[in-house]
Design goal:
It contains 17 helices and six strands. The protein is α+β, with helices and mostly antiparallel strands and 406 residues long. Among the domains are: 72 residues, no CATH class; 188 residues, no CATH class. The radius of gyration is 23 Å and the shape is globular. It binds iron/sulfur cluster (SF4). Iron/sulfur cluster binds next to helix 5.
């Protein structure tokens, strides 16, 4: 079995009761079948409380009205762990925040950015993240997944490392690196659709050339207004998702109101982009959101050494953990757009935070925002599905342009 891990993996330690965002609240903890069997037969003084803490229909732990797990005590500690020891934890609790992507004879292990301690560790890292792959014999026979395209996985794996190289190219801003990443994914999708898997290498070599990058960035820079309108729809999509916490709904309202003026149905009206003439006071108001984003990006450019690195870490994190998942559905394009949407969502939310803080922000703000986005969007199958459906229907403007050219 081949294992791949990021270099920061061994440094992680759970800070338990010191954690500001316990992993035992906010979402439903699914109990695996083996643990459920173990719980039913468990003896001892904690048995009664344990058996009454399970929703047997969904195989989940019950929660209180604040969505805290039934075993979470007021000190932020797990009563199941305290009473029955670490072996009593279900697979979800035992693993979190470790995340394992399974491929045939390959396991890719990462740590969830929705854990604040992981997020701090990743976003505060100044060096480019590296990954280590090693082989370990498990004594079991080789895996043979049904309907699994091993050649496609190996090409995606190759492409993923090339994409990470592009994402770590510090000569460009992170939005520029996202644009190159999306353009590359669009071209790889075309190769896949035409069963030209061996062309992945040529596509990536060509796209990494400076002339080609310049070309993509030129196209992207001409799409400011379309992108702004697309972002409005993206944030409207976020507002259709099921929130884990009520405060998230309020926060989304604040961001959309500040950046996209979506309240009172204004987002359905044509929005103006900086540089376009304003004809009325109403238009001037509508321009404010787009100008705010513009000013924030200018501020980011002036402070680029401090701020682009944490955004790079977010982009690289998602490319590593999600990109090869397209082996299961062949949809490289939607996977890449989902990754870019996470990075973009955090960035736009930071523009709102920056504005609220009167033109400044700190790393803690960015870490909080990243944790919240990952929890609210990434940890619900339902929400992930809504996002994927939106992206299929409304691709990012740059992807549409690249696709139209081919
Ligand atoms: S979210 Fe992370 S640091 Fe916090 S309790 Fe869970 S594993 Fe520990």
């Amino acid at each position: 079995m081949l294992y791949t891990l990021p270099d920061y993996y061994p440094q992680f330690h759970c800070i338990a009761d010191k954690c500001e965002e316990t992993c035992c609240a906010g979402w439903q903890i699914v109990i695996d079948r083996q643990s459920l069997r173990k719980y039913v037969h468990m003896k001892g003084p904690y048995r009664r409380r344990l058996l009454f803490s399970i929703n047997y229909l969904n195989s989940t732990f019950l929660q209180d009205e604040d969505k805290n797990c039934a075993h979470l005590n007021k000190d932020g500690l797990c009563e199941l762990y305290r009473n029955a020891g670490p072996e009593s934890l279900c697979r979800t609790c035992r693993l979190f925040p470790r995340h394992i992507e399974e491929f045939e004879n390959v396991r890719e292990i990462s740590l969830e950015l929705s854990c604040p301690e992981v997020c701090r560790m990743v976003l505060e890292k100044q060096e480019k993240v590296t990954y280590r792959t090693f082989e370990r014999h498990s004594g079991k026979s080789e895996e043979n997944f049904e309907d699994y395209d091993d050649l496609f996985y190996s090409q995606l794996d190759y492409a993923r490392w090339a994409m990470i190289d592009l994402a770590q190219n510090r000569a460009y801003t992170v939005p520029q690196r996202c644009a190159v990443f999306l353009a590359a994914a669009e071209k790889l999708q075309k190769c896949y659709d035409h069963r030209q898997l061996f062309s992945f290498g040529d596509v990536l070599a060509q796209i990494s050339e400076s002339g080609s990058i310049r070309n993509i960035l030129k196209k992207a820079s001409g799409l400011g207004r379309e992108e702004y309108l697309w972002e409005q729809k993206l944030f409207r999509t976020f507002r259709r998702m099921e929130p884990l916490r009520a405060s998230w709904t309020l926060w989304l309202e604040e961001v959309t109101d500040r950046l996209y003026r979506s309240r009172n149905n204004q987002c359905r009206k044509e929005q103006r982009y900086p540089g376009e003439p304003a004809e009325s006071t109403e238009n001037v108001q509508r321009q404010a959101g787009a100008h705010l984003i513009h000013d924030f990006e200018r501020w980011m450019k002036r402070n680029t050494t401090d701020w682009e690195i944490p955004f790079e870490q977010i982009l690289v994190y998602f490319i590593f953990s999600d990109f090869c998942g397209s082996v299961y559905d062949g949809d490289i394009r939607t996977t890449a757009m989902t990754i870019a949407s996470y990075v973009l969502a955090v960035r736009r939310m930071m523009a709102a935070v920056w504005y609220r803080n009167e033109g400044t922000m700190n790393l803690e703000d960015l870490e909080n925002m990243t944790v919240r986005c990952c929890r609210e969007i990434g940890h619900s199958d339902h929400n992930r599905r809504i996002l994927a459906e939106f992206l299929k229907k409304e691709p990012l403007p740059l992807c549409r342009v690249i696709r139209g050219e081919d």
